[in-house]
Design a protein that fits this description.
- The chain has 238 residues and is α/β, with parallel strands linked by helices.
- A hairpin with a 2-residue loop joins strand 9 and strand 10 (220-226).
- Helices cover 28% and strands 29% of the residues.
- 39% of the residues are buried.
- The strands form two sheets. Strands 6-7-8-3-9-10 form a six-stranded mixed sheet, with helices on both faces. Strands 2-1-4-5 form a four-stranded antiparallel sheet, covered by helices on one side.
- The structure holds adenosine-5'-triphosphate.
- Adenosine-5'-triphosphate binds at residues 18, 20, 25, 27, 45, 47-53, 202.
């Protein structure tokens, strides 16, 4: 009998309020969700709807004002800074819009920085092979295109064999074709390694790649869509 999919993340009543002086911003106003093992989930919503705030809480970069966020049986909302650091280091791969590579280090060295502090890393060469950059190990970031630099950032994120890959606008700085190549890489990691992927985008076309699409508006999940047939990045157009 096939096993029931296990939730990786469960959130109940998550709120986040930022206070700056007299001003309060309600970034999340009560989010409930479940995200399952090996799922590919897209967070879609307008600017300011709370996507990054939600991803940052799931990734242990921020904590909610109220509510609960569990990664497996660990309550991230009550974890202290040390526990969150360990959680991020051992279990979370992050990919951001900007690649944050170290310009004085080669591609291989940029990835090795992460594998040196992880308990069960893959070799940097293996991670770079998975993103199609095995030929560029000794190049410096300035010798690569934007899309190639983003693929190095993905290799760095997956080299520690994270449980979850959290991507905040990973194609935001890339042109159409290069963006598709980067999406292909994220889809391949999700399928081949079974890494749960959560990807933020403004681009509704990208939602076609997901198992499920969580639509956010004004700090809430408004709709959850399930794709009966997932599209490959090559089939997407925008
Ligand atoms: N550190 C902060 N201090 C004050 N307000 C913040 C802070 N971070 C986020 N916000 C506010 O919280 C709301 C949600 O922001 P968030 O970045 O989560 O939205 P988003 O959907 O990811 O937007 P975008 O697509 O533009 O990145 C916005 O109104 C934003 O201005």
């Amino acid at each position: 009998m096939p096993q029931e999919p296990q939730p990786v993340f469960i959130a109940h009543g998550l709120t986040k309020t930022y206070r700056t002086g007299e001003v309060e911003v309600h970034a999340l106003r009560g989010v409930d969700l479940e995200i399952y093992e090996s799922e590919f989930v897209v967070l879609l919503g307008p600017s300011g709807s709370g996507k990054s705030t939600l991803l940052n809480i799931l990734g242990g970069l921020d904590t909610p004002t109220s509510g609960e966020a569990f990664w497996r049986d660990h309550d991230l909302s009550r974890a202290d800074e040390g526990e969150l650091t360990r959680y991020r280091r051992e279990h979370v791969g992050f990919v951001f819009q900007f690649y944050n590579l170290i310009s004085s280090l080669t591609v291989r060295e940029n990835v090795a920085l992460v594998t040196e502090i992880s308990p069960q890393p893959m070799a940097p060469e293996e991670a770079l092979q998975l993103v199609g950059l095995a030929q560029r190990l000794d190049h410096f970031p300035s010798q690569l295109s934007g899309g190639e630099q983003q693929r190095v950032a993905i290799a760095r994120a997956i080299a520690k064999r994270p449980d979850v890959l959290l991507c905040d606008e990973p194609t935001g700085a890339l042109d159409y074709e290069t963006g598709k190549v980067v999406l292909e890489v994220i889809a391949r990691i999700n399928q081949e390694l079974g890494t749960t992927a959560v990807v933020i985008t403004h681009n509704a076309a990208i939602a076609g790649m997901a198992d499920r699409v969580l639509h956010l508006a004004d700090g809430r999940i408004t709709t959850i869509e399930t794709n009966t047939r997932k599209l490959t990045p090559a089939e997407l157009s925008w």
